[in-house]
Amino acid sequence: MLLTGYSLEIFKSKCYSEAKGVHCFAHLNDDVREVLPFLNTVLGGFVYTKEPPSLMFKNYGKLITIHPQKIAVNALSDGGEAEKIVAWLQREINETWERRAEIEPSTESMRQPVLMEVLKLLPKTNCRQCNEPTCMVFAARVIEGSKDQNDCPPIGPENKAALQEYLSQFRFD
User: CB within 8 A of 101, min separation 6: which ones?
Assistant: First the structure.
């Protein structure tokens, strides 16, 4: 067992005081840096940083970053959701560590969608029907994986299909 435990720190956004959700840091009891390349392969991380080592990926609709001694998870509904996700990550870390001899480690980052390519396919009306203030913000949400072509009501069928096709090149959990 690589990760024996952690302590959770739950907090509200300091930048956006009206945010309804919370964020969390899981302060790890053990250094997990050696498992990061294996987790990158297993979990399909989309940003891998070699120095200092970290792995960022999306799962459960959340942006998750694993550092050697800390895990950060954004936009959680409450502490219970944080506990569920971090407990899942502890299992993934330990199972991946146990199976590391069978896994080809990777320190490569995945290709990411390009903001302007997504924006080109949107109607650019800033209508707010998607619950975002502008089409540019909506495009950023598409890039991060929290929105997709189905969340833009005024997008035409041709551009909707083109956006779906474009996004299919990239892995989103």
Answer: none
Q: Mean pLDDT of all residues in the chain?
A: 90
Return d(Cα 42, Cα 149) in angstroms, integer: 27
pLDDT digits (tens, 9 = 90+) for 14-67: 766 666 788 999 999 999 999 999 999 998 777 899 999 999 988 777 889 999
- Quick one: which of 70, 30, 67, 75 has its CA closest to 49? 67
The answer to whether the pTM exceeds 0.85 is no
Distance between CA 64 and CA 50 in Å, rounded? 17
Write the single-letter amino acid at 114: V
Tokens of 35: 């498992």
DSSP code for 31:
-
Angstrom distance (rounded) from CA 150 to CA 21: 23
Note whether 58 and 173 are within 8 A (CB).
Answer: yes
Contact call for residues 133 and 152 (beta carbons, < 8 A): no
Residue with token string 């940003």: 47
